[in-house]
Amino acid sequence: MKTTKALVIEDSATHRKLVESILAKSEDDHFAIETAQRLDEGLQKLARTQYDVVLLDLMLPDSEGMETFDRVRQQSGHVPIVVLSGVDDVNMAARAVEAGAQAFLVKGETEAKQLIRAVRYAVQRAHAEHAEWDAPMFHLAQQQFLKAAHLMGLDDNIRERLLFPQRSLVVTLPFRRDDYAEVETVFGYRVQHVLTMGPTKGGIRYHEEVNLGETSALAMWMTWKCALMRLPFGGAKGGVAIDPTTLSRAELQRLTRRYTTEIITMIGPDKDIPAPDMGTNEQVMAWVMDTYSQHIGHAVPEVVTGKPVSLGGSLGRREATGRGLVYLVSEAAAHLHMDLKRSTAVVQGFGNVGSNAAKFLEEMGVRVIGVSDVNTGIYNENGLSINALSEHVAKHRTLVGFPDGQEITNRQLLELPCDILVPAAMQNQITGENAPRIQCKLLAEGANGPTTLEADEILNEKGVFVLPDILGNAGGVTVSYFEWVQDTQNYNWTLEEVNDRLHKVMVDAFRRTTMRAQRDKLDMRTAALIEGVQRVAEAKLARGLFP
Could you give all domains of the chain from N- to C-terminal order, each with its CATH number? Predict the structure, then answer.
């Protein structure tokens, strides 16, 4: 759950405590609250600290009315302001909202739920208005692409065309809670980066920090990934800005069906095929498929991948990303003359990708000495039992309290001495700040965008061999392609056939990338990007420009 940092500027101690009490009781939001009793004190705090929202009383000992609002607005920039007024003044409310206030609430008449919703929506609206494209992940994706484009001498026209997605859809959708008393408005997205290669392909992510920039970055990476693996897809991505861990099963289903309805004109088995991503799973894909099928009038299993096998899903899809990553670890180990049976590994993230990667590494004889989830890290220099970890998580939903290891922070986990480090959690985990302390020989990226450009340079100087994300985690989209093919042909493959084909595709991409890296004296990430970008550029030039 993301923490919202709030500044309450209010001279009444009673009202300050009331606001703090109300926000502290929120079940779906976590607030870190600071207070100020005077305007000058509040302005000083705004100058020193970045807040997510300001709750402002207009009548303060050192300022009154719209002057108070104007001075806070000038200091706070794009930080949303919720006005807390002691008087129900319609004219004042209109002036405040016209000047930029996100909400105008009357103290003493405002219910707790109303205040919490006003603050939540203020933050969401401000984010949508000012930060959609301004996402670190999107900047990283563009920087990586521009570096590759420069080194390969990419045509300027194609370079400019590929910097931004071809289609972007932003939707706001109503979402009803189980108690029927509250209908929220949430933001959803679907982005298609390139339509040149065939239908677009990409997952659906449910996470409170989803925005247009992040979704566009993931769609761009998916384009290069599909091209690198020689799949007949362009890149796409979708998502909803919400924390799925706070939702009941019924709420999750209503949200999914409504989101699917909002993007239904963009998706289709010959247009855009969604799949699971962070915060979604097979069940969510089943609801997407059913909603689309109800709209069409008959079952269309090929509209999504990563769905249950009983609905046309592929054997091996659930573990495909982790399995594909370990296939590449094996190839990289042979390339580096590493003995896996004498190697150690650390895995950041114990979700679908991380847990399966840890499991397959253990099966290959690697000693997994550290794992982590969003709450904690677990370290045991003698090795961890992945089966025991999985059983603990299945029972407790977290690694916290696992008895056979020492609890450490995620930062400490990343810096453990090991042979293989697998970042399989969130983006921007390995940065210019911590890269000098990374102590692995092989970095195998299971997550999207876990390493910044500054960190890449440092790791390259240190001699760390990197399996970049567009290669390392491509097993998921590869088996999604297999699932789509099986659905369109109405012919199922065995698990052995799926894994054998996956192995061949992954190894072929690895060898092409390493050959390019050695031939052109490039790092593996740049070599993989150039492999993908070149294929897209060739396709664009072959199709030409219409009209």
Answer: 3-130 (3.40.50.2300), 136-311 (3.40.50.10860), 320-476+504-534 (3.40.50.720)
